[in-house]
Amino acid sequence: MRRFRNWTVVLLCLMPAAASGQWAQGGPGKIWVKTVAFWQKTDMRFDVNGERQPWLGGVGESDARALFTDIIVGLHKRVDLWFQVPFFDLRFQDATSDLQTVGFGDIRGWVRWQFAQLGGTALAIRAGAKAPIGDSPLDAQIIPVGEGQWDLEGFLEVGHSFWPVPAYAEGWFGYRARFEDKETRRHPGDEVVFLFEAGINPTPATFLKTTLDGFRGDNFIVEGVETQNKREITNLQFIGAVRIGQVWPEFGVRIPLAGREFPAGVQYVLGLSTQLR
Q1: 116 near 125, Cβ under 8 Å?
Q2: Residue 136: pLDDT above 70?
Q3: What dihedral angle (degrees, nearest 10) is formed by the CA atoms of 252, 257, 260, 265?
Q4: Least C-beta-crowded within 10 Å: which of 94, 211, 222, 276?
């Protein structure tokens, strides 16, 4: 139970909201960078049945911080590479322990092809993998910053620009195939991933967006036995940004609406994004 609790703490930031939509970067050498910080401190969680419950009878609390850096590099007018590097500072306290882990998490990478542009509507497919770079020790007294196994995933993305109205809407639909960690004999369930987002520029130097994102997973298999544990989350995010020169600082909140085996507190978000060239 302690080991699975520690895994739940790192789940805080496994799926931050979209870094960029299905519109490709526009040509070779185009580089777009975004760094987003997340913070969540909560004594509540979604349990195995999806109910909001206090951690360990009300004596536990997770305090998680994460920094995600996304780098998107244009290869062609409609093809780009997307990399995501996370860094975690995770802490969990209860009546008997005070655990903390700091370090880089698992790295994700994708190739995205915007295969159609139908008027104001763009269609793209994206395929990628998660590499188990983050530390995932067997010790139940250590919070892992990685999951210890590979993922493969694919997405269909659709978006529409309402220009000349400075607004857009987009949706992502994907499937994540998750492989077994041979060392721990732990096999996370495959997941269906979704995202719906709408945004508007009230002025050329301001931006507002709302995002609904999440995923639904199958049951975990541990040492060959299917458990009742599976991870699910649905988040509602509100973000505002103001341009300062070539940089877009942004701030907002992510509110977990429902889930299983996830911390249940509000996440606070602060980010910076820019196009380098």
Answers
A1: no
A2: no
A3: 50
A4: 276
